[in-house]
Amino acid sequence: AVEGLTKGIVDETTGENLQGAEAAKNFLVEGLGSIDRTLLLSESPEGDMREEEADILKEYEENKASRLDGTSRGIEFGITNLDEKLGGMQNGELILAAGYSSDGKSSLSVQAAWSASVEQGKNVVFLTTETLRPQIRRKILARHSKLPIFNMPEGLNTRDLKRGTLTERQEEMLKVVAKDLSNNPDYGKLYIAQVPRGSSISEIEQTLYRLQREFHIDFVVMDYLALLVSDRRRQTTREELASILREAKQVATTFDGGRGIPLLSPWQVSRLARENAEKIGAYSSASLSETAEATNSADIIVSILAPTDNTSRYAETTMQVLKARDAGTANFFLFEVYYATSCFTAKQGIASFGPAATLPTDGDQGLDSFLN
Questions:
Q1: Crossing angle for the helix pair 237-258 and 21-43, to the nearest 10 degrees
Q2: 5-9, 202-206, 284-288, 327-331: the lowest-pLDDT one
Q3: DSSP class of residue 312?
Q4: Assuming Cys at both sites, which of 56, 96, 122, 368 could form a disulfide with 218, CB separation 3.0 to 4.6 Å?
Q5: 3-state secondary structure of 352
Q6: How far does CA 367 lie from the centroid of its chain?
């Protein structure tokens, strides 16, 4: 790296001449990432399952107990219909919240992070590249204000928090909400880190391991993966995104000596996918076809579709489970989203499709005729 910084070196893989501070940094990060992955591979769990009868039975009994007492062994979104469908986000899973701009991908990420920390007592790391840390903090605070104990049906609006335009009573409640979020011992940690521009998955992984030494991490939200760079430079944007997804899946799988961790990230679909979704009323698995690796690497893909003409901070959205490795059938759900507080409320009406069914990709076929 020093040689690259001073006089330049030739990349043995691509034949490209690497010179300057940025090239030297990328070269060093890639090398450190390779070392990390080698160490993690040596620490990953392995063994003869024929000698693990007791572990197999114990795992099943724990899963059964969780089902009977109404709890999940994974991380839940805190949205009843969706959680019943998925059964929780498990260690080692890469979860994508797919949608177009302003559909509510980041709101869903905030909801999941808040619920994991406050409702489930888990330690959460929220990494943000797209949004400043204070903005995420305001979103979390606004979501927390919707708890029934505060008796504020509308909660604290993020816009008012930003502009300093809360009413006198709301300002008093802000103190109460902030105190509860800060001091309630039943809540898990909710660590928000603003990621520097041009960061790679290896740098994210190093950050997580640094934090893991301070506290046990249960859940990671990355807002969002597509703004990171690959550890190794790629020829096209498509290849870059595919590489980032594969690397993120590896982090989800190998983190903490092979324990793994659920990793959730928003994922933006193309304008064409959005236009097709408007015609049929929901996204389909074909909506992510421009980046095939998204459907290959992700264990769970949840899409959100909001009205394009929405000018209110309320919107009725359609949520679709496009992929879930262990969840079986594909459903879509209707939710009302209050973007001012990142709060999702289920509405009546759930349509279910068979195990092999998907929503139509033909834009001329309406959703009603498909359901019929």
A1: 40
A2: 327-331
A3: S
A4: 122
A5: strand
A6: 28
Measured CA to CA, the distance from residue 311 to residue 322 in angstroms comes to 27
Q: Which residues pair with 96 in a beta bridge?
A: 265, 301
| Contact (CB, 8 A) for 296 and 244 | no
What phi and psi values does residue 223 have, to the nearest 5 degrees? -110, 90
Q: What b/e readout covers 97-122, taking b as 16+ CB neighbours within 10 angstroms?
A: bbbbeebbbbbbbbbbbbbbbbebeb
Q: What pTM was estimated for this model as a whole?
A: 0.78
CA–CA separation, 107 and 6 (whole Å): 45
Q: How far apart are CA 335 and CA 318, in angstroms?
A: 6
The strand order across the sheet containing 331-338 reads: 190-194, 124-128, 219-223, 263-268, 94-99, 300-305, 314-324, 331-338, 343-352
Dig out the tokens for 65 from the structure.
């107990």
**How far is residue 312's CA from residue 340's CA, in Å, rounded to a whole number?**
10
The H-or-E segment that residue 3 falls in is helix 2-6
Tokens of 72: 């999940």
Residue 87 three-state SS: coil
Q: Are strands 94-99 and 300-305 parallel, antiparallel or unpaired?
A: parallel
Is the pLDDT at 352 greater than 60? The verdict is no
Alpha carbon distance 122, 116 (integer Å): 5
Residues contacting 107, CB < 8 A, separation 6+? 139, 337, 339, 342, 344
Q: Give the number of other Cβ atoms within 10 Å of residue 296's Cβ.
A: 13
Taking 50 as the threshold, does the pLDDT of residue 234 lie above it? yes
Quick check: 315 and 306 in contact, CB under 8 A? yes
